[in-house]
Amino acid sequence: MRADSRPVFVCVHGGSSNARAWGPLQNELALLGYRSHAVDLPGHGDLADTPAAYYRQPQDVTALAAAPSALRGVTLEDNVRHVVDTLRRLTAPGPIVLVGNSLGGLTISAVANAAPELLERVVYLSALCLGDPAMLTGTWDGVDNNLLNAAVARITVPGVRDPGVVRLNWRAAHADPDLFAVLKAAIMADSTDHQFRLLLDSLDPDETYSVMEPGALVRAGTWGRVPHTYVRLSADQSLPLAVQDHMIRAADALTPHNPFDVHTLAASHIGYFSRPRIFAELLTSLV
Fold it and tell me: How many CB atoms lie under 10 A from the CB of residue 49?
């Protein structure tokens, strides 16, 4: 394969995350000779004015709750506009493979709906893919026995004033060994404690679930034209395998002419941070 025909991997993060989480995977992709770009969605990472109270020690939880959010008013449409603009600005000559994890799956689906002509492939790393409108109302096939919901309840900051914004105090886990263990088991059980501390320190406190809206539903006439891959993560305790499989089935029923190309890795929800090499090898094998 000529270097200028190799695809560029564009990575879209999940909830409470940002472009920094893709660093280990980007390093592995570079070692294999591939270019990549990690996106900060609006209100995240370098594009966010994160409350100063989140970083101060000791933390003032009252001040943390009162601080305004960079995600106030941010919509799925804002995410799509930002990612499409990024894709159009890429100067790389090769095709584009759009990769998403977790909540980022909603954005990459909407991007593929909006601009399928820009994409060579869309890849879901245990990411949300909504092929059935019933999924927006919480009607799922099978039991969602994830560990994340209970863990997140323990770090949710009460009293946040911005509508639709959930603020999570990830850094509280540094001072609470039991909370640290619970969060690690839910998100990245296949990491070392050191790796998980690095991930915790990279996470943003704020997220909005307003992106869980009809615009995130995949469409047969647009998204369905783009080759799409689902990477099942069999050790995922945040988005369990039964839920991943339900999403694959629903999407395949919508586009039977272009079903998911399915692969499985024995990895956690954020395994691409703790074990980036196996993810890089799989991604490059797709092209």
Answer: 10
Extract the tokens encoding 15. Answer: 């909830």
Encode pLDDT of 83-140 as tens digits.
999 999 997 678 999 999 999 999 999 999 999 999 999 999 999 999 999 999 876 6
Q: State how far the Cα of 42 lies from the Cα of 75, in Å rounded to an integer.
A: 9
Other C-beta atoms within 10 Å of 276: how many?
19
Separation CA 207–CA 172 (nearest Å): 17
Closest CA to 167 of 69, 73, 41: 69
Residue listed under structure tokens 């770009």:
37
Q: Is the pTM higher than 0.85?
A: yes
Strand-pair category, 35-39 with 121-127: unpaired
Radius of gyration of the chain (CA): 18
Strands laid side by side in the 8-12 sheet: 35-39, 8-12, 96-102, 121-127, 228-233, 261-265
Query: Would you list the DSSP string of 222-255?
Result: TGGGS-EEEEEETT-SSS-HHHHHHHHHHHHHH-
Please state which architecture CATH assigns to domain 3-285.
Answer: 3-Layer(aba) Sandwich (3.40)
Are the C-beta atoms of residues 13 and 101 closer than 8 Å to each other? Answer: yes
CA 216 to chain centre: 14
Helices and strands counted in the chain (H then E): 10, 8
**Of 31, 32, 40, 12, which Cα lies nearest the Cα of 119?**
12
Chunk the chain into consecutive blocks of 10 residues (it has 287) and report each block's average pLDDT, rounded to whole numbers: 75 97 98 97 93 92 94 96 96 88 98 97 98 83 82 95 93 96 97 97 95 96 98 97 96 97 98 98 96
End-to-end CA distance of the chain: 10
